[in-house]
Amino acid sequence: MTSHRAPLDLSFVMIVLLAVASIPTISPAAAPSLMSRTARHCFVALGTIKDYTVHGATYELLIVSPESPLEAALQRAKRAYPRARVIGYLNTMDMNDSMPHAAETLPHHEDWYLHDALGQRVRVRADRYKGNRSRFGMNVAKVGYQDFLADRAIEILEAGYDGLQLDNVETDSSYHPSRVGGYISGLPVELDRASWPEAERSMLARIHQRVAQAGLRDRLLIINQIRSGEPEVSRLYLAEVEGANSEGWLTRDMPHDGRFGWKARMEQASEVSRSGKILNLINRTSSLSEDESLYLFASYLLAMDGETLHFYHGTGYRPESTSWRSFYDIDIGQPTGSMSRGDGYYARPFTGGFVAVNPFDVPTRVQAPAGMVGLSSNPVEAIALQPKSAVILKRSTSTDRTPPGKLP
User: Fold this and answer.
1) Strands of the sheet with 372-373, listed across from one edge
2) Is 215 helix (H, G, I), strand (E, B) or coil?
3) Is the CB of residue 200 less than 8 Å from the CB of residue 206?
4) In sequence order, what are the residues at sequence separation of 6 or more whose Cβ sits closer than 8 angstroms to the Cβ of residue 264?
5) Quick check: 250 pLDDT over 70?
6) For 84-143, how does the pLDDT look when each residue is reduced to its tens digit (9 = 90+)?
7) Considering the entire predicted model, what is its pTM?
8) Within this chain, do residues 54 and 192 fall inside the same structural domain, yes or no?
9) Domain containing 382 — which CATH number?
10) Same structural domain for residues 320 and 350?
11) Boundary-marking domain end, from 314, 329, 344
12) How far apart (Å, rounded) are the C-alpha atoms in residues 210 and 161?
């Protein structure tokens, strides 16, 4: 049978090519939100977890523990959240023989370990891990050890992970005299607190370089963690990677002032968000309450700029340790300015709403902008904000998935 095809319409082809060329590319740090909502969410899910599903939740980013085979945890995470980026996990600070490739490699490199003044290996988490479970501090300044970590990082990334969390990258070293006999067995002679930041920075730079040389430039490297009390060291580390966690970012009983106070943590989160680096604000509290979730989440909204700040609240790092709040899905548009301080509160306007937080120890009142409604869709003009509380308002025409409830 002879087929007769119509002549090719070149003008149509040109239109298609121009349309394809106009599609914006997405950088690793600015992947699109999974739905029409203001916030972006992460889930830290460590250890062996058979089902990563959290009822009602959608996440843009997951951090999981790779296992053997490496693809197994990745596949389960993708099954639960098909459009989320899945980040693997790699500890950098300490090792024992049970860790991948450690038994066959580390005995040949005693110089990779940290040693005390008596020449004994420094044990880390010494009050918890003993005997065959002992974990030993590693000299992160040694290029050989850095390459050992880089080889494992590449192995994990080549299994398909979208990135890697490098854990226990400390802005303030744990090797402190006050911790001897508890967290650590002794003080190392190879590194002190003054030399620690540069040792960590060089490790991050080396791993990043090796990952890029392996053809994995599109993968994310994030560190755990940065802290508001060490802003300069935090910036030093962030310059070498795509992002970081702020573990233990906020709790409701945190004071407003001080190096580690509410205001300092907000300022650091805002700075990183404006820079375009990823920052996962990980809030761990002793219990879960909706009021505290609202306070923490509203504080996150005051800090966010762009699409690189992620939020998590839970008592731990497993599906049963967190609850998905309906207001996490709210769409109040984008901020129209930075947060500003009022009389006993901080507030920020959004294109489709308004957020106010009282991080102080005394109650205050906030005047709502015109045309605002609460999460239960009731009109709001003025709000009495109790200490350590918050309110999220939306314009009466805004849409979200929040059902009527007790919140204003």
Assistant:
1) 340-341, 346-350, 353-358, 389-395, 372-373
2) coil
3) no
4) 228, 229, 258
5) yes
6) 999 999 999 999 988 999 999 999 999 999 999 999 999 999 999 999 899 999 999 999
7) 0.88
8) yes
9) 2.60.40
10) no
11) 329
12) 16
